[in-house]
Amino acid sequence: MVRSWIVVMMLTCSDLVFAGVPVTDRAQDLLFPRAPVQTTAAESYHRELQRLASLGKLDVDKPRLLQIRQICSRLIAQAILLKPAAAHWPWEVHLTSDPGVAAYSMSGGKLLVGSDFIDKYHLNDNELAVALAHEIGHVIAEHVREQISMAAGFEPRVPNRTVNVVDVINSMESDISVFLRLQPLSRLQEMEADDIGIELAARAGVYPAAIISFYTKLARQDGGRSIFDTHGPSSQRVEFIESMADYARPVYAASYKKNVPAYIFMPKYHVNTASRAASIR
Ligand SMILES: [Zn+2]
Q: 278 C-alpha to center of ligand 1: Å?
């Protein structure tokens, strides 16, 4: 999950938007417009890329970067089929050797993957695809936008009074009571990202067995920090994921009969890595 937002904008409380989440079809209250949330995320993402580049920790391992983008290109293509608006988002995928980064996504399709995370869990391509599909699930479900919207709703609403988003963001990052009130939604979103991610992975041709092996590796972790710190007890997750692997098998079987498409990244950000030769089967 994204944990840092800086949004500079003013909105009225009448901007409430109701939407459904891909795959789960859960109704969401989305108070804030999409565009400024994504713009702010992109600015934050690019600042982080610049910082990592200045340290010599960005996109150094070119073969691995290409491999990750090939995996993502197939997952993002499926994400766009579930969320057509995402076709217009400038998706980006980068790799860092910063040991503090596992894998995370930001609004609008910005992903960052840590090479240490891949090495720590000895992830093969299919297992890495499961992790990335989870992150892409967060993106197309617009989970960050939903959290910002909910946090804004904690403030008393006064007619004709605008909501200062900077104050909302600050409260999310510094007010423990706001953090705790967001936790039920955060837990729901993590489970939902699993649901969406498994659907995406299966459609993209990822072996269902990789779902079990990936999450089993995480469950065996020794308490170190990971992207799944907020996902609840490992035992519950493994039980849940085994049921999801059962769900994924027929989806995967159907995908195997199709020519699975690949997303083509914008040249502004990437060279075209969406090779037809790319395969994660
Ligand atoms: Zn997550």
A: 26
